Fold:
Amino acid sequence: MTGKRVLIVDDEAPIREMLSLALEMAGYQCIEAENAQQGHAAVVDDRPDLILLDWMMPGTSGIELARRLKRDELTASIPIIMLTAKGDEDNKVLGLEAGADDYITKPFSPRELVARLKAVLRRTAPEGDDARIEVNGLVLDPVSHRVNANGEPLEMGPTEFKLLSFFMTHQDRAFSRSQLLDYVWGGNVYVEERTVDVHIRRLRKALGDNHAPLVQTVRGMGYRFSSQTA
Structure:
């Protein structure tokens, strides 16, 4: 379980520091954000394995951020533990209805937090997270970072690999260039949208004639990855 990334979203720096210390001692990597806007940017950029989210924050509340993340197909699967001083039943129900996977009322001990966090990660871990993905003889192995086509290794750059990995895990859905920039390059990387077109061309070239048609242009929208005819 160690090595998992945990995003801590809380407007109080001492609480973030206490949580980070406890989690890092337990072997987790921590990312910190002091408000919902920073938290959302960190989710897009760093793709954490779990989010510790404070209920009460200035501006956008933790509940509002939780709802936003759960509405987005690309972030809906990231588990959320709500942290709050609100202990009554109604607020717990509100938090869970917003998509939280667990709810911890302050004050709590670091040992309890780590135990609850481990339980949520076990419960929400996707099956075959590191499993190889295969489509029409095209095989991507996320562990060895290799791509094969009909048993032959393919050479491609790291950005093309990330793009292909994203496409193969989100098949048959059209994405705009700006969405691809957010979810493959990261929300804080400022590059032009036509950069996507350049890397799409490189990816198609790397895939070769047989598999290049899997990466389809969606006119007026962007791109999608599909084994079905465009």
About this structure: The chain has eight helices and twelve strands. The radius of gyration is 20 Å. Helices lie at 13-25, 36-46, 62-71, 89-97, 110-124, 158-169, 177-185, 194-211. The first helix runs from residue 13 to 25.
